[in-house]
Amino acid sequence: MCLVLEGRVRVNGRAVLDPGSVAAPHDRILVDGKALSKKEKRYIVLNKPAGYVTTRHDERGRKTVYDLLDTRGGWVIPVGRLDRDSEGLLIFTNDTSFANRLTDPRYRVLRTYRAMVAGAIDSEDMERMRRGMDIGRGETAHTAKVKIIGQDHSSTWVEITLTEGKNREIRRLFEALGKPVMRLIRTRFGPFRLGALAPGEWENVPSEKLQV
């Protein structure tokens, strides 16, 4: 039988007997005196260690990022994947519209990484990255910001900010310079920051803190 016709549905305190009635998003709906539960939006940040793949299941039996999460709160998807060897900030959510906004190139959402690359980075390299570089497959990498944060005789640490998320973009960028990435850590993605999370740790982020 229809719950409405049985008089078991109330909207804003009034019984509704017409099955064609439409409720507004802000209306309070009760069925048998109990409020209909709304799907709670979840936003999770994880400090991904190297060696984990960004997928729920892996046909090769490799460790996945879901091995690190408690997903009893419901289904969540990763936003802006990190490859197996990359580390740092990885976002999960069940809010698909928010996820799409983060990853859509039209919104130019900032992503910041720290990369340790082989060899020395000089002023010419920095200028090439700022101008934009061909990284193959008909694609160009455009950096919003780039700076050297550490250097020794064999490697350089670079902080680099992008506004797009092309596949393996930073690795391909430095490969084009002839200075491959030895370690890559994402520290920021839009309103999310890595903070003090240790590798393998995660936390829920309240929705009121999020603005893109």
Structure description:
The chain has 3 helices and 15 strands. With 212 residues, it is mainly beta. It folds into 2 domains: 1-38, Roll (Structural Genomics Hypothetical 15.5 Kd Protein In mrcA-pckA Intergenic Region, Chain A); 43-204, Pseudouridine synthase (2-Layer Sandwich), CATH 3.30.2350. The strands form 3 sheets. Strands 5, 6, 7, 8, 11, 12, 13, 14 and 15 form a 9-stranded mixed β-sheet that branches. A 4-stranded antiparallel β-sheet has the order 2-1-3-4, with no helix packed on it. It has a two-stranded antiparallel sheet with strand order 9-10. The radius of gyration is 23 Å and the shape is elongated.
- Strand count: 15
Give the class from helix and strand content and strand pairing.
Answer: mainly beta
Strand content: 25-35%
Question: Helix count, per DSSP?
Answer: 3
Structure described in brief:
It is built from three helices and 15 strands.
List the helices and strands and how they pair.
Layout: E1 9-11, E2 14-15, E3 29-31, E4 34-35, E5 43-48, E6 77-79, E7 87-93, H1 96-103, E8 111-118, H2 123-131, E9 133-134, E10 140-141, E11 143-151, E12 155-162, H3 169-176, E13 181-189, E14 192-193, E15 202-204
Parallel strand pairs: 7-13
Antiparallel strand pairs: 1-2, 1-3, 3-4, 5-7, 5-15, 6-7, 8-12, 8-13, 9-10, 11-12, 13-14
Features:
212 residues; Structural Genomics Hypothetical 15.5 Kd Protein In mrcA-pckA Intergenic Region, Chain A; mainly beta; Pseudouridine synthase; elongated; nine-stranded mixed sheet; 3 helices
